[in-house]
TrEMBL record:
The gene is zwf. Residues 1-87 are annotated as: Disordered. GO terms for biological process: glucose metabolic process; pentose-phosphate shunt, oxidative branch. Residues 100-283 form the Glucose-6-phosphate dehydrogenase NAD-binding domain. SUPFAM superfamilies: Glyceraldehyde-3-phosphate dehydrogenase-like, C-terminal domain, NAD(P)-binding Rossmann-fold domains. This is Glucose-6-phosphate 1-dehydrogenase. It comes from Deinococcus metalli. Belongs to the glucose-6-phosphate dehydrogenase family.
Amino acid sequence: MTRKTAPSSAKKGAAKSGAKASAAQPRPKRTAKPKTEAVQQAVERRDAAQNVDVAQTGAAAAAARRTRKRVPPAVAGGDGHNPFRTHMRRTRAPEPATLVIFGATGDLARRKLLPAVFGLWQDGLLGSAFNIVGVGRQPMTDEEFKDYALAALKESKETDAILPGNLEKFRELLYYEYGDFSGDEVYDLVGRELDRAEEAHGGRKNALFYLSTPPSLFEPISSGLGRLGLADQSEGWRRIVIEKPFGRDLASARALNDAIHTVWDESQVYRIDHYLGKETVQNLMAIRFGNAIFEPLWNRGYVDHVQITAAEDLGLEGRAGYYEEAGVVRDMLQNHLMQLFALTAMEAPAAFDADAIRDEKVKVLRAVKEIPRGRVKSVAVRGQYGPGTMDGEKVPGYRQEPNVKPSSPTPTYVAVKLEVDNWRWQGVPFFLRTGKRLPKKVTEIAVVFKRPPLGIFPGGLERNVLAFRIQPDEGVSLKFSSKTPGQEMVLREVVMDFRYDAFGAQLESPYSRLLLDAMLGDATLFPREDEVDHAWQLVSGILEAWDGVSAPEFPNYTSGTWGPEAADELIGADRRWRRL
Ligand SMILES: NC(=O)C1=CN([C@@H]2O[C@H](COP(=O)(O)OP(=O)(O)OC[C@H]3O[C@@H](n4cnc5c(N)ncnc54)[C@H](OP(=O)(O)O)[C@@H]3O)[C@@H](O)[C@H]2O)C=CC1
Ligand SMILES: O=C1O[C@H](COP(=O)(O)O)[C@@H](O)[C@H](O)[C@H]1O
């Protein structure tokens, strides 16, 4: 929950209690907002750019820009005195650095990245000197980009309360370069931005390159930066953050890893999965490994099965170009759900550090029984939403969404059963499901325990459930049976509930957390090369069986329902998907 503006007269105490109250309120429903003028103009420029040869028309402008003189402010960074801050206590600040965002005019940058960076800066967490270079293909001046970015901050629901005067100060940190990502010129311009910042950054040229572009550009950008020597760390650290999906199948993920490693050492590479930046996902590790009472039960002796759900009420949201290529397996299962699975099923790491955690995640991913093409039918179910009603409003089916083929075979729902061949989990199925246009937005990991061995009371033979609510209503609940009041020993299920808002803290954006980690050189919450590889290995049988194969049964679930009926068969007669 974030508040859009801070009353300038607010006193510290009042602000704190305000934050607490807002954290307890339900998250407002996401609705499309009218775009502000600057954002609208940028979108129009983007549309025009599709028909413009930037390399040609940009050459003269780029030459002019190269000779331009500008010096980034010597002292960047909010003063950290943010009375609204109720999160992010860090003792370490990153060294002075430049954040270079490729794809700075895109949806992710506009809605999530710029607000996340602004929040970090306003909280004084970005050190003594910092600046941002947006890079895109659209011709734009620095001033236009500054207008664009500030408009995006005002528009995004993810932006923290803006303290008076801070937008104007933040504006000073923003620069923009543009060009053709397959050429050299744009990287040369980026290099010059790092040169310009050097003095203000204490003689260092540290840089974090964030690739927020379509995946097809990850390799060209990585190589372009390499060609121009920008991965070289002799004048400062250089790191690259790569968005998802990382590859479109096992072979292309491997090829991308190989290409990236010709330029970057693995220690410089940060493959981002924003689910790992969510507080509640980290809390899964805290609860498992920070308490003695759960771990003894966390195995085949006590657990019947585990359900991992990432349900979305939203549909395509205008992302047909991307989603028609990706589908739900690449969009959610291969990355976010596999990460949730790995954190739930892994052994205890020896320490809370990048290698120890990533080693354990890889070990458990390797222990999952393969899903070759021939086994897909028995362990995976796909679905595509049809028209329906959500919150009383009619919504179109997937095939009626703009720019979707009328006979599209793209799945928008997947449920899969994973079996882990190790001593801890032998015989305990993990059921993962995710889909769009399900009844509500909810992400949850539910550990469902075995029934008691003997029933001596009426009732009381239900399965206990420990549920981690990742979002919304973040928290953890334990469902167990209790005596109901009265003369008889009759048992009924009750729930013990911990809600994250009990901390009175506003949960930080996962992008803030992960950006700061990357700037500090902490890769703990970023998937390593071998993790991504194993996750691809697991889903490749599913992709091979489904990709491009016509799915005549589509649509097979109505918008606003919990997915196709076949998913109920997958989980089995003695188990039920949780109705959340
Ligand atoms: N949007 C989201 O919520 C999420 C996105 N992601 C990932 O983040 C990345 C970016 O996604 P998103 O912002 O939605 O994508 P968009 O399509 O909205 O934006 C992509 C950016 O890349 C630029 N771009 C596109 N094609 C080219 C090209 N040929 N040459 C140069 N620049 C180009 C766009 O410029 P222009 O503005 O000119 O089109 C824009 O700046 C993707 O990898 C996506 O999978 C991950 C999680 C969530
Ligand atoms: O990566 C993605 O995630 C979002 C869901 O993220 P959340 O943090 O809102 O749960 C999903 O809508 C999108 O399709 C996918 O690309």
